[in-house]
């Protein structure tokens, strides 16, 4: 991949960027330009051009200066003209975010973070689901996208991308993609915290509604659960996660209807937990009086359930933002910055109680 363009724009050259049609008026009622942004931010027009062209990293533009320029642009309602930028850089200005399921609420959180960071960098985002290796290879080969973000891939279905395709893997196995940047979530730490919470409440016999998907994130959850619950009595049942709450309700009903049902259950995500709530209500069981419940994800519905769900917060927005930052570095010909696994947090609400 070619390195970043080291040419510094001539500050006296005409401003080749233009605002969007909906941009606010600049001085004198005209539309704002790059010169207006430079004046408000107290920098040269050349620096403004570097920031909006994505070439600022190679010219020692500080984070503070970059943010001051973007703040000035927001104040004025200025955005660089996409077509001109694309012609200069030979790029489409678009990145592809591939997720397993567009309807999955957690992926909505990821998309929020991706949109936020991509917007800061002048990139547009296209979202796709139901993809496989061939589909992604075709997307990379057409040149429609500058780079790819692949979230929670199923390793058994995903082939290798062309080596020259800028790509970042989110919530993925770094050992599976050693030559690609990966951004991980500490899902294992979150699962350990969930088991420890129930054990601290005196639960010694717990259920686990585990995903039957083979993606890395669920393998990590399963391994962490088995390790953390090694001294406990466990009842595990597989759930077809992609089939939503109705399938989870059916599986949960079978678990809770057992004569030896567990008095606490950990679910591999919050959608599964909502299915368990439905099953408990149908069986006349109270949460948490008859069964304590913990989910994973902390999607918006977690607070809306009655009672509100104790769950492991997976920072999807931070995952998306960090992924775009890594991809932007690749697009500028730089190595992606190293990123430690993003911390997860157990959010304790009202769905868990001491063992009877």
UniProtKB/TrEMBL annotation:
InterPro entries assigned to the protein according to its UniProt record, in alphabetical order: HTH_LacI (IPR000843), LacI/GalR-like_sensor (IPR046335), Lambda_DNA-bd_dom_sf (IPR010982), Peripla_BP_I (IPR028082)
Residues crossing the lipid bilayer are none
Domain HTH lacI-type, by residue range, is 32-89
Signal sequence interval, chain numbering: none
Q: Where is the composition biased (Low complexity)?
A: 9-24
Coiled-coil ranges (or none) = none
Q: Does the keyword Electron transport apply?
A: no
Going by the UniProt record, its keywords in alphabetical order are: DNA-binding, Transcription, Transcription regulation
Citing just one GO molecular function, the answer is: DNA binding
- Region of interest called Disordered, as start-end residue ranges on this chain: 1-35
Highest taxon in the source lineage: Bacteria
Keyword Lipoprotein appears in the UniProt entry: no
Pfam families xref list = LacI, Peripla_BP_3
Q: What is this protein called?
A: LacI family DNA-binding transcriptional regulator
């Amino acid at each position: 991949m070619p390195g970043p363009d080291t040419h510094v724009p001539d500050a006296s050259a005409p401003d080749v960027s233009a605002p969007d049609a909906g941009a606010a008026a600049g001085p004198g009622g005209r539309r704002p330009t790059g010169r207006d942004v430079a004046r408000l931010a107290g920098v040269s027009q050349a620096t403004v051009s570097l920031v909006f062209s994505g070439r600022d990293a190679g010219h020692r533009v500080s984070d503070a200066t970059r943010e001051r320029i973007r703040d000035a642009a927001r104040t004025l309602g200025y955005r660089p003209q996409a077509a001109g930028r694309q012609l200069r850089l030979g790029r489409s200005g678009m990145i592809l975010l591939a997720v397993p399921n567009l309807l999955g609420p957690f992926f909505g959180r990821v998309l929020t973070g991706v949109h936020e960071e991509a917007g800061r960098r002048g990139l547009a985002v296209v979202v796709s689901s139901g993809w496989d290796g061939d589909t992604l290879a075709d997307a990379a080969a057409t040149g429609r996208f500058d780079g790819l973000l692949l979230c929670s891939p199923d390793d058994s279905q995903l082939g290798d991308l062309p080596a020259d395709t800028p790509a970042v893997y989110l919530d993925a196995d770094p050992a599976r993609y050693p030559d690609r940047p990966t951004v991980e979530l500490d899902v294992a730490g979150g699962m350990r915290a969930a088991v420890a919470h129930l054990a601290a409440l005196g639960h010694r016999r717990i259920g686990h509604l585990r995903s039957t998907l083979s993606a890395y994130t669920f393998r990590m959850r399963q391994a962490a659960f088995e390790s953390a619950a090694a001294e406990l009595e466990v009842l595990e049942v597989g759930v077809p996660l992609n089939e939503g709450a109705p399938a989870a309700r059916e599986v949960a009903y079978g678990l809770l209807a057992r004569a030896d049902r567990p008095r606490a259950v950990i679910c591999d995500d919050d959608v599964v937990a909502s299915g368990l709530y439905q099953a408990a209500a149908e069986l006349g069981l109270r949460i948490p009086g008859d069964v304590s419940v913990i989910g994973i994800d902390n999607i918006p519905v977690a607070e809306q359930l009655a009672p509100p769900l104790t769950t492991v917060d997976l920072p999807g927005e931070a995952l998306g933002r960090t992924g775009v930052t890594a991809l932007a570095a690749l697009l500028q010909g730089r190595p992606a910055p190293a990123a430690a696994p993003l911390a997860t947090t157990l959010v304790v609400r009202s769905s868990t109680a001491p063992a009877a």
